[in-house]
Design a protein that fits this description.
It contains 27 helices and 13 strands. Helix 6 packs antiparallel against helix 8, helix 18 (about 420-445) packs parallel to helix 20 (about 515-540) and helix 21 (about 545-555) packs antiparallel against helix 22. It has about 775 residues and is α/β, with parallel strands linked by helices. A hairpin with a 4-residue loop joins strand 6 and strand 7. Strands 11-10-9-12-13 form a 5-stranded mixed β-sheet. Strands 7-6-5-8 form a 4-stranded mixed β-sheet. The chain has a two-stranded parallel ribbon with strand order 1-4.
């Protein structure tokens, strides 16, 4: 291998190049019209987020120029928090990224057409794939390692000769078909000519006007306006805001800036949205999203005139006073019940319910791309309902949370370098105290023979479709959709304001992917408490004599001390349900009652039973939802199924729900697996960001595909199933199918669609 000094002597010392050109120039048009679409459709599907191999984010011009880094972002063993490396946030120049361990994948040495390819990691990896296409066969050999925890090879320009010699089959796209000759030529021509890129075209006047309206709203001068804006920011900081009254395509992030509206944005970079900004006055600005929209990080949130009116009613019509602004000290800022005590809690709760799917999505997707720390604490399929905000008791509601604010403290107060055991013991004690008080208050809240019924469940105010949600977990990723999708699940949550707010501040606002092992484990352990609390709220609607039996089904094999903790609030809240159950299956009755409660606003887009699903598809696919164990254990987590009809292609997701004896185990999740109880949910539409496999069938093949799935008993059977129906990662038509799926998804869901991630595609 050539030494660095020799490489410097031959090609010059590497230094960042000026790559940005002005819009409307020929180079800019070539980049936007020819180059960028290929990079999006062929590269960003694996290189788009923190978990991109080698931290190489190709989803924007700035990410391409920043390059790669050999360090891992996801490291659950680090003793000290790492330095954040967030694109657009933590460094403002390519040279600054070089100083922080990133190296170029474009030629940064002497500039010439030949060297622009020879000294470019990107060019060399694309050429390597052209020289060594995928080996023949449907299954790639063992030298292709697709595991998420594989040892990554991140060659620099100096190391490329050695890489090509040792891994000749590992050209890019890795483990996928090579780019077509025309596509490869476009990228190589671009690289040879210096890889010039261009900023986004200027925004149109109608977008500029909307930005001005919302920045004006978010930057009022009164203490009340400042407090409300801080609250909105801390809940929107990872949102993709869009103006629903304007055409789809542009998204924005709200950021904290040192500069007021009308001046260029100067982003204040902090680990968390509530950290001390270090300036006397913060301005909340709408920053245009610069990169490709990825399904796994896309959390769309609509802004429009109706929302402006709604937020004004929620936060400014109540005659409350804000005398001082809360500090940014961690023990205050990490605790929304302290920081925003002045804002009526009913107003805060109704704001969170306004777009509850988004609120929950913050926890499901969070500010990271791989969420196993948080997600192995939830079941694979469950429903979510919400407690009805009671205007009559608004003052009592606020008073209760004010009284309980110390017990509602979150472990993120310990910041990114946290101890494990001492913090867990502290917050376990606080949560136990809170649940004791909550159960006692619930007993007092229902005097004179009144008891809990579905009257206490939010029905969406008659027009809000966020009243019922379904969550699917896919090992280390998850999806939330509106409606009650699939067969009645084993568990469900009923979420009240205190629970909803803490979920957000634990797993979104307060979580640091760069934090140490203590921070990450404390987050995981505390989420156990929140799941149990949501389950408690649901079980409280069932007859008291069935609650323990139901808990025993959910928590098989747990220790006596854990059982004692689980049952403690139920012993305190021992009131009978106010629901007059008629059968010996109260949970199934309760599900039917809840469905009826939210029926006027219930979304059915992802249900097999909806207007757009042909009856023949529904009849065939519903059979898969009756499977338990057996064939299910051979199925992947997420199958994207396309059925070719005469007039259109219909898309479905075949989701495997992994069963567990319990989900309390911190490290040994596999030990609690019950594969013989695994089930399948089939959804209309594409659910999930990480497809494991694409299956493509004609309508005439559908019944045979379903029969083949139902008959699975060996890995050989599964391989035959894939041979007959799958578009494997080795399929010559893979990219053609990928393009069609993305195009159809964007056409059907212009605001919600994003690029899928192919890092979990199977090789079997």
């Amino acid at each position: 291998m050539i030494a660095n000094s020799q490489f410097d002597d031959m090609f010059g010392i590497a230094e960042p190049q000026a790559r940005m050109v002005v819009n409307n120039s020929p180079q800019a048009e070539f980049y936007h019209d020819e180059v960028q679409p290929i990079i999006e459709q062929r590269c960003v599907v694996c290189h788009g987020c923190y978990d991109a191999p080698c931290q190489l984010k190709l989803s924007s011009a700035q990410g391409i120029d920043r390059g790669a880094n050999k360090d891992l972002v996801y490291d659950g063993t680090r003793l000290l928090a790492a330095t954040p490396q967030r694109l657009f946030v933590d460094n403002d120049s390519t040279q600054a990224w070089r100083n922080n361990g990133f190296y170029g994948v474009l030629n940064e040495r002497q500039q010439s057409p030949a060297l622009n390819q020879q000294a470019s990691v990107m060019s060399r990896l694309l050429s390597l794939k052209q020289q060594h296409p995928l080996p023949k066969g449907t299954i790639l050999p063992k030298q292709f390692n697709f595991s998420l925890d594989r040892e990554q090879q991140c060659p620099t320009d100096v190391e490329m000769d050695n890489y090509a010699q040792n891994y000749p089959d590992w050209g890019m796209p890795f483990g996928l078909p090579a780019l077509s000759k025309p596509e490869d030529k476009i990228l190589q021509d671009w690289l040879r000519n210096g890889a010039k890129m261009a900023p986004l075209p200027p925004l149109k006047d109608n977008y500029i006007a909307q930005i001005a309206t919302w920045e004006n709203y978010l930057n009022g001068d009164s203490l009340k306006e400042k407090l409300v804006s801080r609250y909105l920011y801390e809940h929107w900081f990872i949102a993709h805001l869009y103006f629903s009254e304007l055409p789809a395509g542009e998204f924005f992030k709200v950021v904290r800036s040192r500069t007021p509206p009308g001046q260029p944005i100067d982003v204040i970079a902090t680990r968390r949205p509530y950290d001390d900004p270090g300036v006397e006055r913060v301005y909340y600005r709408l920053w245009r999203e610069q990169g490709s929209i990825l399904e796994k990080t896309h959390m769309p949130y609509a802004l429009n005139n109706d929302r402006l009116i709604t937020f004004t009613q929620l936060f400014f019509q109540d005659n409350y006073q804000v005398k001082t602004l809360p500090s940014y000290q961690p023990e205050v800022a990490s605790n929304p019940f302290k920081a925003f005590e002045a804002i009526p809690s009913i107003s805060r709760y109704k704001f969170l319910l306004e777009e509850a799917e988004f609120t929950i999505m913050n926890f499901i997707k969070s500010p990271v791309c791989r969420g196993q720390v948080a997600l192995n604490v939830i079941n694979d399929h469950f429903w979510v309902f919400f407690v009805n905000p009671n205007e009559k008791n608004a003052k009592d509601h606020s008073a209760f949370y004010s009284e309980q604010q110390d017990d509602l403290a979150l472990p993120s107060a310990a910041e990114s370098n946290a101890y494990i055991i001492t913090n867990w013991l502290k917050y376990s004690k606080l949560q136990r105290s809170y649940m004791h008080t909550k159960a006692t208050r619930m007993n007092k809240a229902f005097p004179n023979g009144e008891h809990l019924t579905t009257d206490q469940i939010w029905a969406g105010d008659g027009d809000n479709t966020n009243a019922a949600l379904t969550i699917f977990r896919h090992i280390d990723s998850a999806t939330v959709v509106k409606g009650l999708v699939g067969r009645p699940p084993q568990t469900s949550w009923v979420i009240d304001y205190g629970l909803l707010e803490r979920i957000h501040y634990l797993l979104a606002a307060g979580f640091d992917v760069y934090g140490n092992i203590g921070h990450q484990l404390n987050t995981r352990l505390y989420m156990d408490f929140l799941r149990i609390e949501g389950e408690f709220n649901f079980l409280a609607l069932l007859p008291p004599e069935t609650r323990k039996a139901e808990l025993n089904k959910w928590y098989q094999g747990v220790s006596d001390s854990q059982k004692e903790y689980l049952m403690a609030p139920h012993k305190l809240f021992s009131q009978p349900s106010g629901i007059n159950y008629q059968t010996e299956q109260p949970k199934q009755e309760l599900y039917q009652l809840l469905k009826q409660k939210v029926k006027p606003v219930l979304v059915t887009d992802n249900n097999l039973v909806n207007k757009s699903t042909p009856k023949s598809h529904r009849k065939a696919l519903d059979k898969l939802q009756h499977l338990v164990g057996g064939p299910v254990t051979l199925m992947p987590q997420i199958t994207f199924l396309s059925i070719q009809g005469e007039e259109q292609t219909h898309y479905y997701s075949v989701l495997r729900n992994n069963a567990h004896s319990n989900i309390t185990s911190l490290l040994g999740e596999d030990e609690n697996r019950l594969p013989e109880q695994d089930t399948i949910t089939v959804t209309s539409g594409l659910v999930g960001a990480y497809p494991d496999v694409f299956v493509n069938v004609s309508e005439s093949q559908l019944n045979n595909y379903v029969k083949s799935v139902m008959a699975l008993s060996t890995t050989a059977d599964y391989q035959k199933l894939m041979d007959n129906y799958a578009i494997r990662r080795t399929d010559p038509n893979f990219w053609q199918h990928s393009d069609a799926v993305h195009a159809d998804n964007k056409k059907q869901h212009p605001y919600k669609a994003g690029l899928f991630d192919y890092n979990r595609l199977q090789n079997r």
